[in-house]
C-alpha cells in the first residue's frame, strides 16, 4: 500500500494445473470440488501454447512416501532464472537459492519442471491451464520441438492422443506422451493472443513480487513406473532423466518445422 501509488492486484488467470503421471501414462488435475482429489484429464489432450519459458523446482528429498516435498518460486527464461526453494508448507524458510544448475547440486531429488501455460478447452470454453512436465515427459516435449524445429508459440495446436513406453538411464520404464501438432487460424489465433496478454500481465506482477504463485503443489506422482522392461523407445543416453533444459532450442517462428497434421478435431 502507498499514499501515491495504487496497489496492483491481478487475479491468477490460470484455471488449473495439469500434471502428468508416467506410471499411469495419464494427465490429471486437482478437482474443482474441495477435497475431490485428482481428476483425470482424458486423452486426447489438445492445447495451444501461450508461454513455454517458465520453470520451477519440484520433487522431494528422498524416495520415502512421506519425504518432504520441494516448492519454489517461478523462473523464466527472459525474466529471471533465479529460484528460491522451500519445503512445502514452510515458505518462510528458504533452503536453496540460485539457478537450476546450482540448485540441482544442493538438493537431492530436486526436479526441473517446465510450466507450459496453454489455452485448452474442456467443454467450458477456452481457458488458461498450466501443464507441468518433468523427467522423461519433459524430455519428450523438448525433443519433439528440437527435432522438428518447432516454435511452440507459433500458430499451431499440440495434441497428445497416445502414450508409449520409454526406458531411462535410471529407474524403471515409464509411459511418455506422444506429441503431434495441427495448424490454427483466425479466431483461435486471436483468442490465444488475447489470453497471452492476460497471462503476461499476471506474470509481470508475479515476478515483480518475487516469483511466488499460488498453483497447487505437484501431487504424489513420479516418472518412475512399475512397467515391464519391454520399452519401444530407449531414451538417448546424452540426456539425464531430470533433464535440465538450459539448452537453446532452435525454432522457426510461424512456419517450417514438422508437417502439421491435417483434420484434427480441435475444440478451439
Distinctive features:
3-stranded antiparallel beta sheet, alpha+beta, 268 residues, 16% helix
Radius of gyration: 18 Å
Q: What portion of the residues fall into strands of 2 or more residues?
A: 25-35%
Oligomeric form: single chain
- Structural class, please? alpha+beta
Number of helix segments?
3
N-to-C series of helices and strands = EEEEEEEEHEEHEEHE
Give the number of domains.
1
**How many strand elements?**
13
What number is the mean pLDDT? Answer: 82
The N- to C-terminal Cα distance equals 40 Å
Overall shape: it is globular
Main sheet specs: 10 strands, mixed
Tell me roughly what share of residues is in helical segments: 10-25%
Residue windows where pLDDT falls under 50 for at least 5 positions: 222-259
Note down, in words, how this protein is organized.
The chain has about 270 residues and is α+β, with helices and mostly antiparallel strands. About 15% of the residues lie in helices and about 35% in strands. It has one domain. The strands form two sheets. Strands 1, 2, 3, 4, 6, 9, 10, 11, 12 and 13 form a ten-stranded mixed beta sheet that branches. The chain has a three-stranded antiparallel beta sheet with strand order 5-7-8, covered by helices on one side. The model is unreliable at about 220-260 (pLDDT under 50).
Question: Helix and strand layout, with pairings?
Answer:
Elements: E1 14-21, E2 26-30, E3 38-41, E4 45-59, E5 70-72, E6 75-76, E7 83-87, E8 94-98, H1 100-106, E9 110-121, E10 126-134, H2 135-147, E11 156-167, E12 174-183, H3 186-208, E13 233-234
Parallel strand pairs: 1-10, 11-13
Antiparallel strand pairs: 1-2, 2-3, 4-6, 4-9, 4-11, 5-7, 7-8, 9-10, 11-12
Amino acid at each position: 500500500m502507498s499514499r501515491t501509488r495504487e496497489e496492483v492486484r491481478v487475479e491468477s488467470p490460470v484455471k488449473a494445473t495439469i500434471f502428468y503421471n508416467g506410471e499411469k501414462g495419464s494427465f490429471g488435475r486437482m478437482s474443482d470440488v474441495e477435497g475431490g482429489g485428482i481428476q483425470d484429464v482424458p486423452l486426447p489432450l489438445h492445447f495451444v501454447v501461450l508461454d513455454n519459458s517458465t520453470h520451477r523446482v519440484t520433487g522431494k528429498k528422498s524416495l520415502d512416501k512421506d519425504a518432504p516435498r520441494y516448492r519454489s518460486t517461478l523462473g523464466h527464461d527472459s525474466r529471471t532464472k533465479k529460484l528460491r526453494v522451500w519445503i512445502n508448507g514452510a515458505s518462510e524458510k528458504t533452503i536453496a537459492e540460485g539457478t537450476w544448475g546450482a540448485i540441482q547440486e544442493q538438493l537431492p531429488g530436486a526436479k526441473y519442471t517446465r510450466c507450459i501455460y496453454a489455452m485448452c478447452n474442456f467443454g467450458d470454453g477456452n481457458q488458461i491451464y498450466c501443464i507441468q512436465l518433468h523427467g522423461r515427459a519433459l524430455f519428450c516435449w523438448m525433443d519433439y520441438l528440437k527435432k522438428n524445429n518447432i516454435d511452440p508459440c507459433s500458430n499451431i495446436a499440440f495434441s497428445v492422443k497416445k502414450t508409449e513406453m520409454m526406458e531411462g538411464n535410471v529407474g524403471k520404464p515409464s509411459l511418455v506422451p506422444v506429441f503431434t501438432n495441427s495448424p490454427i487460424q483466425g479466431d483461435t489465433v486471436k483468442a490465444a493472443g488475447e489470453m497471452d496478454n492476460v497471462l503476461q500481465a499476471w506474470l509481470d506482477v508475479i515476478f515483480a513480487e518475487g516469483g511466488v504463485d499460488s498453483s497447487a503443489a505437484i501431487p504424489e506422482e513420479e516418472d518412475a513406473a512399475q512397467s515391464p522392461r519391454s520399452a519401444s523407445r530407449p531414451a538417448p543416453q546424452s540426456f539425464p532423466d531430470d533433464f535440465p533444459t538450459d539448452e537453446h532450442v532452435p525454432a522457426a517462428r510461424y512456419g517450417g518445422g514438422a508437417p502439421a497434421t491435417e483434420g484434427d478435431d480441435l475444440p478451439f
